[in-house]
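When time allows, look over one protein, given below as sequence and tokens. The question is which stretches look regular and which look disordered:
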Amino acid sequence: MTEKTVAVDATRAEAFAGAYPVRPIPASGPVETSPICLTPSSFAGLDPLWKAVVAETRARGNDIHLPISVAYAERLCAAYPAADRELVLATTLLHDTGWARVDESRIISEGFAGDWRRASIRYEHEHQGCVVAREVLPRLGYSDEFVDRVAAIIDGHDTRHVAYSLEDALMRDADRLWRFDRAGIALASSWFGMDPATYTDRLAAEIVPELITAAAVEMATADLARSNALLKTGVLR
């Protein structure tokens, strides 16, 4: 990364922080906190995009992770109507497709162990996710400008510490929110080699503070309480 790129990225982060100085960012629309299975993604306009990446959904549990994340993204867009809904949903759908283009044997051993946020395979999957987006979106009629905006969010969604826009923030929060649902806990706890109680403790201590929007915090808190009760994590530890 060049010094010029670093400076531009810092400017974008500062501009976003200046536009939304209160954190977590308050919602201006309704916040839905019922179980996510009650409101699955309903935007049929995404169906062609889903069909274009079926092969990429078969890696690393993406066929569980991505639909749940998109459902959360729809809720977040309702809570933040100023965001570009189509951009948020398309980016959330595509953000982890890059896992299908990396060495599968390294996904768990490197991507979910040690200092996992800085693992090289995480940078690789972000890059490959941008490649997937640039392959499939133009074929479906999306503009070059839209494709560039999608790729800019996918690039760094795991490894960047800051968001650059409201749409970036909503995608990042949706990517985290799925972990609080019982399906997310069942899948992700195994990736990290943790029992559910240890994993839900980690969600509360590390992931909730990372959430950028107040709506996401409210959703995560409600989901975590339900999941802890359902999975008996107060006893099974």
